[in-house]
Amino acid sequence: MPRSTPAPWRSVDRRTATLAALTLVAFGAAALARVLVDATTASIGSSARYVAVPAAQWDAFDTANAIAAVGACCAGAGVLLFGASLVSAVRRHRATRMPQWLGAVTIVLALGAVVSGIAATQQTDFGAAAGLVILRTALAGLAAASLPALCLAVLRARATRTR
After folding, report:
1. What is the number of other CB atoms lying within 10 angstroms of the CB of residue 110?
2. For the chain, N or C: smaller number of CB within 10 Å?
């Protein structure tokens, strides 16, 4: 009688892989929105802070604002999905060094946010400062999103040590 072979143990389960793929899609959509906003505002030939248009007309800046709002929502969803994929990975794996790795990555993300924030305050160009502020916000969001997974990993590691 033929026996079924057990499925091999996967290092990444389907839930974690799906969440990671959705995270990449969300960040990709946010990056695409950023490129579209830059292309839309570049076609006008002047900076947004120097253009005044009557409120009744829909123009390229309104289009850029709508695209930027969608991009911001995608970036926010990407940050939340990033945190969820980390929690899913921590729940699946019982690696003993996971808290150290997650802690190190969280610290690096937080320090990157601080450094980019300091660099943004020293910029004289509005575009460069805005780019650094966006980077600071993204790094701080990713660091905050990794905290639940870090706490879960620490609690699991502590629970295994006390047994």
Report:
1. 17
2. N
